[in-house]
Specification:
This protein is an alpha+beta fold and about 200 residues long. The chain has a domain of about 140 residues: Superoxide dismutase, copper/zinc binding domain (Immunoglobulin-like, Sandwich). About 10% of the residues lie in helices and about 30% in strands. The chain contains 1 helix and 8 strands, in the order αββββββββ.
Length: about 200
Amino acid sequence: MATRVRPRAKIRVSPPSGSALPLLSIRLLLGSVVASATLAACSGVNLHIGSQRDEPARPKATGYGEEANLRTLGGSAVFGKIRVIDRGENGASLLVSLMNVPAGAYRIAIHETPNCSSPNAFSAGPPWAPPGHDPLALIPIQYTTGEERVEASIRIAGLRAEGPQGVAGRSVVVYTGRAITPARPDVPNATLACGVFQPTQPFSF
């Protein structure tokens, strides 16, 4: 007698009903984002989701300074450092440290150009000061000394270490006498030393 083969039942696989499929998709999407963020953190790549905004540059904190190492001029033996340290929004401190200073009066002035190659500081350009200040009277120091070493500190309103009111990218010149004499090419004058301002580490005074 012939054997009768029954047809196999067809099994249908239906997608999950209701909101199961959208929920599964959301979970997969979140997993992908988390994995991407983890990979970016490990590889040092910044991952930005959404719009990216450029953050404004933050100003340097109080204590940022510029320092000029002085080189001798005009046959003098004067050397040392002059620092300008920011002190809040109203001004800066000028710190003077000089060695081998001859007896008598001397003056200090900031100049426009960061160049001390001339033997009489002509390469430093004209005296400079922030807006509203007299370049020849910005630093009110007229010392008369009989000692070889000079240490001084003075607060100057309106002066900064950097920016439009700053000494960054400028030079400083030390003069003998009570006046600041303009320099002319190859003409000896009353300059003692010159230095170009460079960034320095914060100081605590």
